Amino acid sequence: MKPNRTLFNGSADFLPPDWHQFDALEIHPVCEDEAEGFSEIAADEAHATYWSVYGHLTTGGVDCITDVSTFSLAFAAAEKMAELAAKEGTTLKITYA
């Protein structure tokens, strides 16, 4: 697959991850604190600076796959990712905050 800066901007090479390492996709609002220089999952949608799609690792934890500006873009990206994963034999459920 060719690099995709929208779907895979969480990786240095903009290529899809190995879908087999995930058992789900998670969509979370993210709050960025520019003054402190960090970002974290926001407590709720009202405090979101942007939205991230994470792959939930089968071993536990998450890995950020992409960041986008709105929930609707995050959901559309997650649907496309789930479609790509299915083509490789991995079924990924989409969950969101």
Measured by DSSP, the beta-strand proportion falls in 35-45%
Order of helices and strands: EEEEHE
| Rg (C-alpha, Å) | 13 Å
Structural class: alpha+beta
Main beta sheet, described? 5 strands, mixed
Number of helices: 1
Q: What percent of the residues sit in helical stretches (DSSP H or I)?
A: 10-25%
Estimate the mean pLDDT confidence: 93
The poorly predicted ranges are none
What does this molecule look like?
With about 100 residues, this protein is of the alpha+beta class. It has one helix at about 70-85; strands at about 20-35, 40, 50-55, 60-70, 95. It has a domain at about 30-60 and about 70-95. The protein has 1 helix and 5 strands. Strands 1, 2, 3, 4 and 5 form a 5-stranded mixed β-sheet that branches. The longest helix is centred in the last third of the chain and has 17 residues, at about 70-85.
Layout of SSEs?
Blueprint lengths: L21 E12 L4 E4 L8 E8 L4 E7 L2 H17 L5 E4 L1
Parallel strand pairs: 1-5
Antiparallel strand pairs: 1-2, 1-3, 3-4
Question: Characteristics of this structure?
Answer:
5 strands, five-stranded mixed sheet, 1 helix, single chain, 97 residues, alpha+beta
Give a nutshell description of this structure.
With 97 residues, the protein is an alpha+beta fold.
